[in-house]
Each structure stands twice: as C-alpha cells, then as structure tokens.
Amino acid sequence: MKKCMANFSSSIFRQQFPILAQFVNGKPLVYFDNAASTQKPVDVIDCYQHYYQTSNANVHRASHALSSRATTAYEETRQNLKNFIKAKHSKEIIWTKGSTESINLVAQSWGRKNLQPNDEIVLSYSEHHANIVPWQIVAEQTGAKIKILPLTIEGRIDKTRLEETIGEKTRIVCCGHISNVLGRINPIADVIGFAKKYKALTLIDGAQAIAHLPVDVQALDCDFYVFSAHKMYGPTGVGVLYGKREILEKMSPYQAGGEMIKSVSFEQTSFNDLPHKFEAGTPNIAGIVAFGAALKFIEVQQLAALAQYETNLAQYCFAQLSQVPGLCFIVEGQPDIPVFSFTMTGHHNHDVAAELDSQGIAVRAGHHCAMPLMQYLKIDGCIRLSLAAYNSVEEIDKVILALKQMSHQSLANDTAAMTNDELGQLSPQNLQQVGYKASEAVNKIQITDTAHSLNVDSILALFSKAKSWDSKHREIMMLGKKQSSLSAELKTDQSLISGCESKAWLIHQKNEHEYYIFTGDSDAKVIRGLIAVVLAAVNNKNSEQILTFDMQAYFNDIGLLQHLSPSRGNGLRAIVNKIYQIVEE
Ligand SMILES: Cc1ncc(COP(=O)(O)O)c(C=O)c1O
Hints:
The chain has helices at 10-14, 42-54, 65-84, 99-114, 133-142, 188-197, 217-220, 245-250, 285-301, 303-321, 349-358, 371-376, 393-424, 428-433, 438-448, 456-465, 469-482, 525-538, 543-548, 551-558, 566-584; strands at 23-24, 27-28, 30-31, 93-96, 120-124, 145-149, 170-176, 201-205, 224-228, 239-243, 261-264, 269-271, 327-329, 339-344, 361-362, 364-366, 382-386, 504-510, 516-522.
C-alpha cells in the first residue's frame, strides 16, 4: 500500500495545512469530514490576509489603484478557473456563494421562465438537498413535475434505465457528478448524451467531484456545472456556476442591484453583459482572490497525483472497514473516491460519531443532506468518513481500531442491555394490567432507572473526576447506557422532543406533592446520557424549583457546553425547553 504511494508524500502535503497539527480532545486531530469542507493550505490563508493588507477595495467601480489591483486579482481568478474546468469563455464563469446558490440561480432564472405545466425535471435518488429543493420550488411555481433516476446496487445512476425517466417531456436533467454520501462517479457522459436526444438541458452538481477529478466542461458538453470553493481547499462563501454562454445570454438576472446593470433610470434598466449580469452587489472579493490561490495550489500539487493517492487510500480504507465486525456499508462495493458511508450494528450513528470525536476523529453522522437517498435505501442515516490527500494510512488505522473496539464492546454488553431493556419496556398500561396504578408505573420506571437516583451533586461529583472531554464523554455514554428505555407506545408525537438531531422522548408524572418525575429516552446513547444529566437537575422538584434552577451554570460546572457540537448543544437545549414547556403548562 505505502509502496504504490511512493510518488506522493502525504506528510509533506499535510504540513501545508496548519489546522491539522492540533490536538482535539487530547488526541492528534484526524479530520475525516472533507466531503463537508476541506481544510485550507497556508497559501490560501496567506493570500486572504495579503489581499486585505495590500489590495482591499471594491471591484470594477472605482478608478483608483487599489480598486484596479483588486479587480485584476478578482478577474484573474475567473480566467484561471475558466482554464481549470476548460470552459470556452471566462464569461461563462459566474461567481456565487456556493453550489447551493448556483443551483438556485439556474432554477429561478432559467427554470421559472422556461418550465411549463407538465414539463419534467429529472433528478436522481442520490442528490444533495441543494439539488432537490430548488427544483421542487420551481416545479411548484410552474406546474412542472419531478422525475427520479434510479440507482444501481453500487449506488451509481443506472445508465441502463435512463429511458424510464428521461423522455419527450424532460426539459432539464440535474444530477450529481459524485454523491456526497456514496462517493461513486455517476455515468454523467451517458446521462448528458441521453438528455441531448430529447433536447433537454443538463446541470451537473460537481460539488464532490471537483476536488477529486479533472473536469472538462466542454468535453462533457453539459449546459451547467456547479461547485463550491470550500470543498477544494478554497475559502467558504465562494461558488461557481459554469453555464454555456448562449444559454446564459438568454437567461434573466437572478438578483438585482449594483454591478449587474448597464444603466438605470426610473423608467427602465438595462442589464450588464455576462458574467456581471448575474453578480449583483459586492461579491466576496477576498474569497475569490484566495480561491485563485487554491487553484494554483492544486495545480502545483497536480490533481492527478492527489487523485492517485486518494484512490490508494480508498482501497486501503475499504479493505480495513470491511473487516470491522458489525459494520454495514449502505451500498455494495468500493467507492470511487474515499467517501465511505455505513452503519454499525447495535450502535446509533450519532453515538459512533461522538465516540470517535472524543478520540479526536472528526466524522459525520446523520442524513448528510440527502434524506430522499436515506428513504430510498431504507435507513435513518449513516456514518460517513470522507478523506482527502492529507489523510494517511495511520489515521485510517486509528479509526479502524476505534470502530473495532466499539464493535467488541457492543457484543460484550448485549446481555446486560437486554435485562435493562426488558425492565424499561414495561409501559404504564402493561404495568396497570399487572396491578399498578399510573403513578406507580412511573415509579416502577424510576426504580429500574439507575439514572433517576442521580441528583445535581452526584452528577457534579461524577464529572469533576472526569477532566478531559474523552472521560466526560465516557461518563455521558455510561449514563446513557444505564437509563432505561421507554416502551414504543410512550414514544408518541406528544412526548417527542423537537429540535433534537436524534429522536428523543420525554414523559412525566407529578406526585401528590406536585413534584415532577420525568423519564426520557433516545435512539442515541449520547442523547440518553444528556437526558440523564438534565433529569438529575429537575426530578423530584416542583415547577418553581425547576424554573429557578440555573441550568446554564450547571452545564458550565459540568463542562458540557464548551465541548458539545452546536447540534448536540441544541439537543441539550431542546430537552431543557421541553421540560420548561411542561412545567409552565
Ligand atoms: C453534492 C453536493 N451538492 C451540493 C452541496 C452544497 O454545497 P454548498 O453548501 O457549498 O452550497 C454539497 C455540500 O455538501 C454537496 O455535497
């Protein structure tokens, strides 16, 4: 494995990314969330700073030296990008703030004007929400219909079934070059060729492809190609819409304001030429200039060398992941780029991500902005590892070791969990049938629930011993394990805690002294643990005591908030809000 990577030094490449040198949760950072956003090399960071230190001014508008310098650097990037994707004219490159805005631009500018009732927009099952929702909106506005291309069992668009979806009524086919979940290169040349037979336009979402493959928009002959700079070592807030000149010429502006006009009077406005017609307002000049540095960086490193190294990394990672007991890939076979999506038997996706995070390993869990794909594959979500050329075999070995440990732990815990679950599965109704009243039923749940014997002092004592986030996380997971489960009939829309990324529920009872007893549950152990922490502060208290308790200070004392991701922090707030809602009723 290491031998076939001899031409490329990942460690030298990695040194150019200062962020990767840090420790996270006491461990060297392993960043495996590159499909969400790549890290930035020193060249890009320096260029950004240098621009503000030497050249900052608005573009195109002023006749002074700084403006001219800023405009030159800004337009140079457009020219370089034109060469990077082999477009015919730099006028065909429109700056946006990301792939999402690029797709919205086409949907609203081209789609709204050209789509008629019953015209068809063709998407695929593996699209990112950014390539679904803008089309749903324009379909609603115009009466057009959406049709979906099926996938093969390996997760690629099935090129043998194009005729089932693309036909006389198709006006535009919009699909990802590579899915952000599946990491498979779609047969887009076939899709584009097929769409042309019916004179349908094509939009390719290249957000995941652009950092991994050479892209030649003229050879592809697509009508639109979109991507974001931040997924290719460039800054956030910069995106690209490539469109064929003759099509862009006929499209109306998407947004209106300065820069996109030739002349304005209260009677009439005439629009600017391409590309400025689509670039209303002051653009992200510093970002675009720094994106120029990212393009040069990729050129110097050579995309082909990066891609070769990544292919080898993908082979190695796939072989290793395949040996983790209980790991199930969501589609068959090895991905084309190092993007791996899977579930772990006996573990909630968020628990796996949280456990890896406690070891300094950044991965993503959830639906990955591809909910229709999750529905198509009949899963709730998955864990995604996405690698870049600065990742190494040693980092893969670390994640494999962590996953194997999790998998062994879950086998060892199976019996104990069953006993606990059996007890927790007793619903109040079931308990009533065997002679308990509702309040006794909740007491029964409380008795079986070790977490309920906790109070603020015991929680603070527990966490004061856990100094690092790693050990705090372990305590949360232990609390989660000890918390008994709610039976299915108690998991209703009413008991659902909205705002939690993983599903979570809360039920309550009041005793004769008006003291509350809450019981909660979640699909994810980490959330169950957080519920236990919150409940320790509110159980066996009346509404006044609950509402006056300083929850924020409690969380700070435990040292929770500074470590929880915004989504999990929001989950914690959602649990607290649900409790306040109940006691304020
Ligand atoms: C395939 C795909 N399309 C579109 C997007 C949206 O990109 P952005 O958020 O940069 O607009 C993403 C982001 O993850 C993506 O992976």
